[in-house]
Amino acid sequence: MSQIARSARQLGNLIQRTRKQRGLTQTELAQLAGMRQEMVSKIETGHEGTKLSSVFALFAALDLELVVDTRSGRATQNIEDIF
User: Fold this and answer.
1) Between 73 and 34, where is the model more confident?
2) How wide is the angle at C-alpha 26 spanned by C-alphas 25 and 29, nearest 5°?
3) In 7-80, which ranges are E strands?
4) Residue 34's pLDDT band (boundaries 50, 70, 90)?
5) What is the pLDDT of residue 81?
6) Which CATH class, in words, describes the domain spanning 8-64?
7) Which of 7, 18, 46, 60 could be bridged to 12 by S-S, CB 3.0 to 4.6 A?
8) Where does the pLDDT of residue 32 fall: very low under 50, low under 70, confident under 90, or very high at 90 and above?
């Protein structure tokens, strides 16, 4: 099922929901992704300074993929209108 994430917080929520659906703790997911539990916690809470490589490591561990698509809805002229 496709899910939309338009912010670091929404992406973190998506990762957290998927982790819980798979019955994994943050520590177990961290081990699968090769990182520390604290990093999983930061990502799940929407920490803005997260490296993309960390997000992709979690995606791989959760068997997720990133799909980039055109934003649905009206076209915006200002970046502020997006958020």
Assistant:
1) 34
2) 85
3) none
4) very high
5) 57
6) mainly alpha
7) 46
8) very high
Contacts of 14 (CB under 8 A, 6+ apart): 3, 5
CB of 12 within 8 A of CB of 45? yes
Select from 50, 30, 48, 49 the least CA-distant residue to 38. Answer: 30
Task: Return the axis-axis angle of helices 37-44 and 52-61, rounded to nearest 10°.
Answer: 100
* Residue 61, C-beta contacts closer than 8 angstroms, at least 6 positions apart: 29, 32, 33
Per the CB < 8 A criterion, the answer to whether 82 and 76 are in contact is yes
Structure-block tokens of residue 46: 């929407």
Task: Give Cα separations from 65 to 14, 50, 53, 55, 81 (angstroms).
Answer: 12, 17, 13, 10, 27
pTM: 0.82
Give the integer Cα–Cα distance in Å for 40 and 50: 10
